[in-house]
Amino acid sequence: MKRRKFVATASALALSGASQAMPKTNHAKAEDEQQLIEWRTYTLSSGGRKSTLDNYLKNALIPAMNRHGIENVGVFKDISRSEPLKIHLFVPHVSAKDFSEITDVLANDQAYQNASKEYHALDKNNPVFSRYESALLLGFKAMPKLVAPKEQKKIYELRTYESYSDDAAGRKIDMFDKYEVKLFEDLGFQAVFYGKMLAGKYMPCLTYMVCFDSMEDMEKYWDKFRTSEGWAAIKDLPEYANTVSKIHKNFLEPLSYSQI
Q1: What is the pLDDT of residues 125-179, one digit of tens each?
Q2: Is residue 10 part of a domain?
Q3: Range of the domain at 208
Q4: pTM to 2 decimal places
Q5: CATH number reported for the structural domain that contains residue 180 in this entry
Q6: One-letter-per-residue 3-state SS of 71-99
Q7: Looking at the domain assignment, is residue 49 inside a domain?
Q8: Label partner for 133 (CA 20 to 30 A): which of 5, 40, 199, 256?
């Protein structure tokens, strides 16, 4: 009898300890939950059907997403005039569950189905795009959600930092979480999001977006960053050595119906 009581007590203590050690995900504040951000890049077909894609995104897809709780959907084009044209879509999903279910949700949304008839009716000889790529990002702990600027900016800079290993990428993300996100904020940068790449090109890597009033404004802020005491204090910390092996930059401008 004593042995049963001891085992029961020990089990209860073990469960209690485990519950204290486990992260309290279910009880975390909604504003602290790291958001999933889908980054979709449409490469338009030769000859282009940008107006058809615009109509679909503006009048069908984005309104449907808004109806189902997805806010601040961003749509951009590359500032460069290189061909073929690329359109970038950023969708901040409420949760992984919502991300996995959005296709079924849209299939059962009659307003979406009606608004997207023209888009879905095109045959194989008249495609809107040749292909689109998707990447999935997880918001950083220091800035877990995508934040739309109070006023829409003219220049959005999208930066992807490749790392040579998962460890290096993790250390660079740690550097952002502990120091760089706050430094950007202190220097007046307007960040839209910071994300760890969960799936997509260039992995392992991180991607983030900052926005400016003009190219001149952008250069001014980066000069201020490079010469700041804050950057000088952290850039040579040994724990963050050799974390970035290559940087990709995209300069984007928002389309008229973008919500970012």
Answers
A1: 888 888 899 999 999 999 999 999 999 999 999 999 999 999 999 999 999 999 9
A2: no
A3: 31-254
A4: 0.85
A5: 3.30.70.100
A6: CCCEEEEECCCCCCCEEEEEEEECCHHHH
A7: yes
A8: 256
